[in-house]
Amino acid sequence: MRKGVYDMFRRHKITVIGSGATGATTAHLLALKELGDVVLVDIQEGVPQGKALDMWESGPIENFSMKVAGTNDYEVTAGSDIIVVTAGVPRKEGMSRNDLLKVNSEVVFAVVEEASRVSPDAILVVLTNPADVMAYVAQKASGFPTNRVIGQAGVLDSARFRTFLADALNVSPKDISAFVMGGHGDDMVPLVRYSYAGGIPIEKLLAQETIDQIVKRTRTGGGEVLGLMKSSAFYAPASSLAEMVKAVLLDERRILPVISYLDGEYGEHDIYVGVPAIVGGNGVEKVLEVDFTEEEKAAFQRSVASVRQPLSLLSLGAKG
Ligand code: APR
After folding, report:
1. Please, are residues 108 and 129 in contact by the beta-carbon 8 Å criterion?
2. Atom of ligand 1 nearest to the CA of 23
């Protein structure tokens, strides 16, 4: 991504597509964290411009130097280091993430095609639901190498898992590390065996019944928020995106659960699905393969099947 030694000292340019609840919250977080100048894009005229101006004006108070600009024109996004895709239609109550398949795949294909054309070296981070399928769509629309297209799901799902575990243990969520694998649906796979509180396996600290309840609540975490406020979650999703953007732009080589392309890993081919991976300057640097019990393996395979099914309904013109 960086082309020379002096480039290391220039500011990053970040594009966030979709200036709705998640996109705008993400853009503000990125500016607050001083990760780069932010361009917010939307199809609605005036909305990205107005929200960006409002955020930019928080700079003197929040003490950030970053610029935030809003636009409907992809030329303004040219030369971005990273592009975050939140454009699309969110879930309404009673809808599954797959109900969004047709409309969101068209939106994601169109916006990624435009944005990737003017930022051919960028990393793409896709949040639009159904996220596993949309990551695949984004890769086809951009023609980017598969490692440069990542989907967001696991950081959010595991943040929910960590929140509930920390609450049950009455400890800080900072000390909880947990993994959630598989598709970003209600059959995701929270991996209890690989979850720790301060390095101690959670199975040693919590009763199985409590763990089971937390796993269930994690799987339906998005639906719980939706049921309460009748619209899709966006604070924790935006924080998850900001964490992924930071991992890439600072080349942190974080181990994060992300939606990554599988080319033989876990015995799967030609699919994007949630797995633990090293995330750095090149996007997904490496997918990490963990051992499964028979039960976990079956759960992961069910989850993969639930991503393949909607994928098979789409006819995607392959670019790369
Ligand atoms: N080009 C650019 N922006 C678009 C396009 C398009 N073709 N189509 C829709 N948008 C914009 C909308 O105008 C809106 O501002 O995407 C934004 C979506 O924002 P919200 O409706 O507030 O939805 P949000 O809650 O942010 O969720 C966005 O993330 O979590 C997922 O399921 C969720 O897929 C949904 C996405």
Report:
1. no
2. 26
The answer to whether residue 184 is catalytic is yes
Right CATH for 154-311 from 3.90.110.10, 3.30.450.20, 1.20.1560.10, 3.90.180.10: 3.90.110.10
For the segment 204-219, what is each residue's pLDDT rounded down to a tens digit? 999 999 999 999 999 9
Residue nearest to atom 25 of ligand 1 (CA): 21
The SS3 of residue 115 is: helix
**233-242 confidence digits (pLDDT tens):** 999 999 999 9
At 36, list the tokens: 């780069």
* DSSP calls for 203-261: GGTS-HHHHHHHHHHHHTHHHHHHHHHSS---HHHHHHHHHHHHHHHTT--EEEEEEEE
- What are 188's two structure tokens? 């995701």
What is the strand order of the sheet 200-201 is part of? Answer: 176-181, 189-197, 200-201
What is the CA(72)–ligand 1 centre distance, in A?
Answer: 14
